[in-house]
Amino acid sequence: MHSASPTPPSRDLSASSSGGPSASGSPGSGRTAPPSLWRDPDFRRLWAGQTASQLGEHTALVALPLLAVLAFDASAGRLGLFLAVAQAPILLLSLPAGAWVDRWRARTVMVFTDAARAVVLGLAAVAGLLGALGLPALFVVAFTVGALSVLFDVAYQASLVRMVRHDQLVQGNSALEGSRSAAQIGAPALGGALVSTLPAPAAVAFGALFFAVSFASLRRIRRAEAVTGRGPALPEREAAAFEDGSALPERAATVHPPRRTGFRHRVGEGLRFVAANPWLRAVCVASAVFQLSFAATMTVYLLFLPRELQLTGAAIGLALAATGPGALLGSVLAARLPRRLGHGPVLVAAAALGNGALLGVPALHGSSTGTLAALLGANVVFGTFSQLVNVTVMSVRQAVTPDGMQGRAAATITFVGMGCTPLGSLLGGLLAEEWGLRGGLLAAAAGMMLSPVVMAVSPLARLGRTLPAPSDGGPPST
Q1: Percent of the chain beyond pLDDT 70?
Q2: How is 323-363 classified by DSSP, letter by letter?
Q3: Pick from 68, 85, 280, 414: most CB atoms within 10 A?
């Protein structure tokens, strides 16, 4: 459940993960281990561009709301509205984005959105230098960047499947997930430090710089993509694009007959597919419950830290960055625990432990070293188990979803889950105004505990060590 709000990072139930399915060959097949992706210049460009884009996105997600709080003295209600506006594109664009990405080349979408985000934040920096960057302009910037990020995130989820061989998916996802975790470590601290030490235009300009670097890297990718939703696969002379002489990914090179389906029909296909799959239905419900409560929690959290605990922008950035090392640890655990303990038990336990870590934050007082250490500890625990849930659920989604439905399935889950975040942000502002920062934060954090409850009573809890295949109709009846 990847949140559009500044973090601790939420769990993105639609993003790629290191736990994706792989086709490394059956015993006796004679197939050798896949070549290292680090020897592939196009993959290195994808990895570098994704890393820079994640740094830009996470820096902006911290810098823009902190600017609203620290520079423009936004009230709880106004901050809730600001975050809701920034998250509204998730609700408005997720479903169309899935249908578009299944028909477009992921590289084209990522390059366009990086360039556009760089331009938008660059213009915001110029407006700040001219004295025209007020809170209303910040609302417009947040909405626009949020809309472009929805397109980028859905395209990113489909890009690797189209670019590498099937037996290289785990290797590629691990590298890209590592860059996302690294961005979670550095970007929040950087965003907090920029807001507290530099003028507003400089803080915004750093996000534009990262997006420009990502644009320059991604546009140099030369490998052709096979887009399964656009009819026939690429011609044979384009399909043999790998330097080792192999064909395009097994998942992408399958020939599909041309289909003339309208936009609404394709969106409807994605909705029906997710609704008919018992595991993905459960993911949607758990994601919606979590994202609603998490968005409310983060709205109060961003006010609680500077106003109740009297923390500086740099200290806030450091506390938020603590989720990054936790995310790295969670990625390591996700490669081992589900296969040893079962995917279902790991999901339920990790969600309960991660969400429960934030329940103790409202009990903190003052800005002492002990308070900051407690915040760091809570965010490390939250980051660890949230990442464990994130990677495990992504493995489930990738495993049960056919290739030509990957973009729409991801977008549908994002729409249902992350679409609740604008309402959650408004709810968080209301809770803070009615119950105070401490009481509002406790109520919102308690709501997050409903997510593991939903998982525990769903088919997700019964998943074992082996994931189902796309052809499986659902869990066996009991």
Answers
A1: 74
A2: HHHHHHHHHHHHTTHHHHH-HHHHHHHHHHHHHHHGGGGGG
A3: 414
Cα torsion angle, 45, 51, 55, 58, sign: positive
Looking at the predicted structure, is the pLDDT value of residue 112 above 80? yes
Closest CA to 434 of 225, 29, 442: 442
Neighbours of 183 (CB within 10 A): 25
What's the CA gap between 466 and 21, in Å, rounded?
A: 11
Q: What is the pLDDT, as a whole number, of residue 261?
A: 58
Q: Is residue 216 helix, strand or coil?
A: helix
Q: Report yes or no: 71 and 240 within 8 Å, Cβ to Cβ.
A: no
Q: Would you say residue 138 has pLDDT above 70? A: yes
CA distance 8 to 295: 11
Cα dihedral 442, 443, 444, 449, rounded to 10, equals 90
Q: How far apart are CA 379 and CA 8, in angstroms?
A: 6
> What's the rounded mean pLDDT across residues 176-195?
66
CB atoms within 10 A of CB 236: 9
Cα separation, 17 vs 314, in Å, equals 30
| Cα-to-chain-centroid distance, residue 159 | 15
Tell me the helix, strand and coil percentages in the chain, rounded to 5. 75, 0, 25
The closest of 300, 301, 304, 296 to 425, measured between CA atoms, is 296
pLDDT tens, position by position, 337-381: 888 898 899 999 999 999 999 999 999 988 788 899 999 999 999
Q: Is 132 exposed, middle or buried (0-12, 13-18, 19+ CB in 10 A)?
A: exposed
Helices (H), 164-199: 169-197
Give the pLDDT confidence score for residue 405 in this predicted structure: 80
Q: How far apart are alpha carbons 142 and 407 in whole angstroms?
A: 24
Q: What is the pTM of this model?
A: 0.66
Nearest to 66 by CA among 54, 55, 89, 82: 82
Q: Is 322 helix (H, G, I), strand (E, B) or coil?
A: coil
3-state secondary structure of 73: coil
Element (H, E) at 52: helix 41-66
Report how far residue 67's alpha carbon sits from residue 70's, in angstroms, rounded to the nearest whole number.
Answer: 5
CB burial readout 23-50, b (16+ within 10 A) else e: bbeeeeeeeeebbebeebebbbbbbbbb
Least confident of 40-44, 292-296, 345-349, 370-374: 40-44
d(CA 192, CA 318): 8
